[in-house]
Amino acid sequence: MKAICLGGAGRIARESLFDLVEFSDFEKITVADYDEAEGRKVAEWLNDPRVDFVRVDVTDHDATAQVLEGYGVALDGTTIALNGDSTACIAKAGIHGINLNGFGAEDEYDGKFRKHGRTCVPGFGMTPGTTNMMAMSAANQLDTVDTIRVSHGAFRPVAFSAAIAETTRYEYDPNLPGRIVYEDGEYKQVPPFARPRDIALPEPYGTHPEYIIPHAETLTLSKALKDKGVRLIEVRGTWPPKNMQLVRTLYDWGFMRNDKVRVGDAEAGILDLIAQYLLNSPEGTETELYGYALYIEVIGQKDGKTYQYILTHTHPASDGSEPGWEKLRAYTRNVGIPMAIGATLLAQGKVEKTGVITPEEAFDPEVIFAELKKRRLIIHEQKTELSDQ
């Protein structure tokens, strides 16, 4: 079986490839990217005879699909803006696919994946992805579910890559329709910085105010748990405090609208200009603490009693004491590893359902947790009975 990673030169996607090199038995692992120079650097860095490089342009669906034919699975590490194109290529090639973002551009290709008897799983990184598994693990232990609160802290620079800068802008776009909560059977749209809640993330990250963000868990968990009577699903997130301070200021002062401004004879969006500055400055590309922290709260009933489950996750430190986890890699490995695990399970035929499906439909949480543990990403669970409190 062969695996190929679109956008494989990216900081996160290369960690998915690194994981395949370390843990999988794929006979061929291909770095596929538009940036040939960077892609070849990644292939050289991976330093494995199974690894090669191919240049692709996912906006050219026919040419990219021809490259993909013959592979068992495509990992998609392209940006949110390109996920429609990349999924079109994977569907046309008739192979399995999995990506990190899961913002819905994949859905229109459901029929093509079904036609080929193949599966596409959008949104399988840390969040969405691992968070879905954590929520489902708790929900599976309950007869009914009342509340799910998914929270995370992504401790990374605000703009260490163009893709991450794009994600930051996307999540706090004031006009974004997908920033929703699920409440009493309805999806309700909320503005940026809605419903603040202090979340006690596992150490060393501490407690931070978190706000509703536009992630796929709200939709996928509400569908997966519709028969358990779930009443409330909220998804929150935060970045390092300085990042949040910046984004809040940009939002309050209208910069997030990206209005056009003229500088001399040139015209550009004001947020585009700020993004370019951040991508080329130490303030935008460095931070004090690196890594990822998840915090999932599930409240429901079992045998007439009410229970609260708190699930968190921990990973090797980013302070240089753990080789291979230094600084930014403590963040990027967290995100890239789950996609590699999912891709391996797809290639092994462990996912029976075809078409574009959710992480909840595709994977058994306990299988994912066992694989994460092999990589030293540990899921912790605390169960408390609330009935007597």
CATH level-3 fold name of the largest domain: Dihydrodipicolinate Reductase, domain 2
Overall tally of domains = 2
Total DSSP helices: 14
Class from secondary-structure proportions: alpha/beta
The CATH homologous superfamily of the largest domain corresponds to Dihydrodipicolinate Reductase, domain 2
- How large, in whole angstroms, is the Cα Rg? 20 Å
CATH domain class name of the largest domain:
Alpha Beta
Overall shape: it is globular
Tell me the major beta sheet: 9 strands, mixed
Q: In angstroms, what separates the terminal alpha carbons?
A: 54 Å
Helix content: 25-40%
Taken as a percent bin, the fraction of beta residues is: 25-35%
Beta strands, count: 18
Enumerate the spans where pLDDT stays under 50 for 5 or more consecutive residues.
none
Give average pLDDT, whole number. 95
Can you tell me the CATH architecture of the largest domain?
2-Layer Sandwich
Structure, described:
This protein is an alpha/beta fold. The chain has 2 domains: 2-122, NAD(P)-binding Rossmann-like Domain (Rossmann fold, 3-Layer(aba) Sandwich), CATH 3.40.50; 130-333 and 368-385, 2-Layer Sandwich (Dihydrodipicolinate Reductase, domain 2). It contains 14 helices and 18 strands. The strands form 3 sheets. Strands 7, 8, 9, 10, 11, 12, 15, 16 and 18 form a 9-stranded mixed β-sheet that branches. The protein has a 7-stranded parallel β-sheet with strand order 3-2-1-4-5-6-17, with helices on both faces. It has a two-stranded antiparallel sheet with strand order 13-14. Helix 3 packs across helix 4 (83-93) and helix 6 (130-139) packs across helix 14 (365-374). The longest helix is centred in the C-terminal third of the chain and has 20 residues, at 328-347. The chain is globular and about 60 Å long. 51% of the residues are buried.
